[in-house]
Please model this.
Amino acid sequence: MSHSTVPRTRAEADATKKTPVASGDATGPRGGRRRPGKLSLRLRFRRDRVLLLMTLPAVLLVLLFNYVPILGNVVAFQEYDPYLSDNGVVSILHSPWVGLENFQRIFEDSAFWNSVRNTLVLFVLQLLLYFPIPIALALLINSVVRPRVRAISQAILYLPHFFSWVLVIAVFQQLLGGAGLLSQLLRDHGYDGLSVMTDPDTFKFLVTAQSVWKDAGWGIIVFLAALASVSPDLYEAAAMDGANRWRRMWHVTLPALRPVIALLLVLRVGDALTVGFEQILLQRDAVGPGAAEVLDTFVWWNGVRNQDFGYAAAAGLVKGVISLGLVLVANKVAHLMGEQGVYKK
Amino acid sequence: MTPNAASGPSRRSFLASTAVATAAVAGGVPLLSACGGSDGGSRDGTTSGKDAQKLLPAYVAASVVTPDIPSKNGSAVGFTSKLDLADLKTSVPKKLGKGGEVTIMSPFWGSPPKEDNAYYKAMNDLVGVDVVWQNQDGNTYDQKLGAVLASSEVPDVVVVPGWNMTGKIPSAIIGKFADLGPYLSGDAVKEYPNLAAIPTDAWRRSIFGGKLLGLPMPSSYVSGIVPLYRQDIFEKEGYEVPRSCDEFMALAKDATNARAKRWACLDMKWTAFNAFGVLSGNEKSLGWNQVDGKLVYRAETDEYLEALEWTRKLFAAGVVHPDAKLGKSNAADPGPKFAAGEFLVYNQDISQWWSRTAEQATQNPEFKIWGMDFFGHDGGAPTLWAQNPASIFAFVNKKASKSVIRDVLALANVTAAPYGTKEYMATNYGVEGTHYTVKDGVPTKTDQGNIDVMNAYVMVASPAATIAHPDFPEVAKGQVEWQQRTGAVTKKPTFYGMQIVEPARYTNLSNDFEQLEDDIVRGRKKIGDMQQAVSDWKSKGGDKLRDWYQKILDENGPAAG
Model:
């Protein structure tokens, strides 16, 4: 909270009162906390009670569905057996405690570290190959002038996002699979068939390509919105100064997108360890866990498939801790770049 | 920690000793032994002798029609002569169902029909119970089972194949399903005559944790998986059925022509295991056998590695259809591609021998599927290992009311009706006119019959292993004779016929072998990786598990025969 948001004069404080807190503006209640003499808790509560009341249902929902289930993580310290009772809570009470055994197993389990490695490699690949594509596409779409062409190309780009992964992978299979269209075409002309769908060495590129095909179009929405907010004056001014198209993009468009890019980048890093569960699960057997096991499928395999829930929960917790660390680092980097990131100190 | 089933603390009472476990952890005692108390839960082990005798239902034989081929070498009984459809017996004279609703979750191999199809309606009508089917893909059933059983929404009836009883599933079965003993043990079963006619061996396998929980599907102890091949194409091309691994490889190379979209086979791992005489992987307890006074697990044997190596060579030679490389999670039903001749041999359940025949009969008259005899890898007679005399069970939810349990038993009494009855015909063929037509006294399945009358009702308790296909008697004959030839070289392993629940801490020990097998045959891992995995397995508990099985063996003695 920078000090500029603290009301300095009576008039400002009054103005603050009328500012709806919900606007996301950081002025107001928290600003007052620094000077308890100005507005007591009771006063502030009285002033905001309607707003507080209005947020209450949402807060309750968040507590009930986001925070209460977090307590279930205690099974990471148990040899949890969900079949001891029909009620999960009773099962937890009856399952034996094993201390840190599950975590000890994780650190000794080469399969776990293999999945961490796969996850990180996939994340880096996607960051390099996937992340820039929506930006480029947004710039491209933005430069299209005719609304009709623009609308149609946008629709075509968005569409794959609405296909389920099962469908997307089936399409890839039919086209690129060992018995697929392209393979048969190659064989007809005397070449060997393709094995990209079952090749562990190129699997990560395949997964990235599928993600690009499916979701890159959808990813441009935020960038398009940011582009729409760039004032045409800036372009005009730049053009007056003799900037060509390329220079205008470099000096006007991209700086305008920078906060959005930084924000999405931080969010993406926070999600780094979540790299397409469904997509990978569907193809896991085609290349084997050595190349395809990521953290999420590891948790699923051990928890759901092998019913080793305590172990899977422990792996999930480790994943959460690593993710948190990554977000903090990414946010720090965003701050160093002079951007806001997801939060500010 | 001795794995002693009788005197150890039960899991529930273990809670009281949590403090001790925690203290032990703090003191640096190895964690595994500290929590090993859960070993001794009453859930693991097996039930035999007098304890089992008390639970088993009385056996009252029922034979409506005398079989044309009697059971030999563990085969099913076969019926090949014409069935007088006009004179079918009624084995359930009075509807026993009380009209309640029963939801059943069951594995399904193929594409499930619509929920309100004519077959389901007719069966529900016949039984007097409103059955609602929740069909799940049979190939990935294990992936759903654990989650469904852990939820509070367990269906009234859950069908569980023995090979899906991995991890904590046996514990779930014991914890979540109803004791059918009060309804079926001893003479009580006589209320349901068709259930009373189920062989005792199958019922013995339905005892879990000291209670009679399952409604069994009796099966022949001969391998249920058959290498099925396109006999018509073999004949046309002049291929001989191979009698050794080398012959198979030569044939496979000869038959494969990727350019013409033809490959020799799918994944032949199963055939390879049989050719090399590898202990069964069907069920954990079947994987153990006593050799020279010592118990050996299948993964420890040389034969196991040799079988994997041969299968790997098949993949490497490019004779395996590319779909088989995808593994099981996204491979489609092989049926259509087999019918299209894209591959010529695959391993499947013996029932497909008939169902593929029936399915293709009208539109593809040339099509002929037949079962190949297992061959010894070197050309000699193979050594095959028995599977259990019942491997698929239907369980009733513990929370189900008495009337639901009665309705389920009424349903089972209909589905277990023997050959030659109206109930058998309805369960296996559906409705006359809709699912099959009768011409010259021979029922022929219609297209709708091939869609609707699949899996479902046959999954809930069945009569003694029966093979009868009045529409294709030559297939029935072929199947029974295949079983008899195969049965002649089939041996029973040490724990044959017993229902054994492993202690919780060992249940996940062998889980990764199957994945590793698939990796090796597809060339992604080396044989050496398997050897490493086996030595890890031993040190992580495999040797202790061996001791545990030895104790069971000492207490119960080896399987009869």
Observations:
- The domain at 109-336 of chain A is CATH 1.10.3720.10 (MetI-like fold).
- Chain A has two domains: 3-75, 109-336.
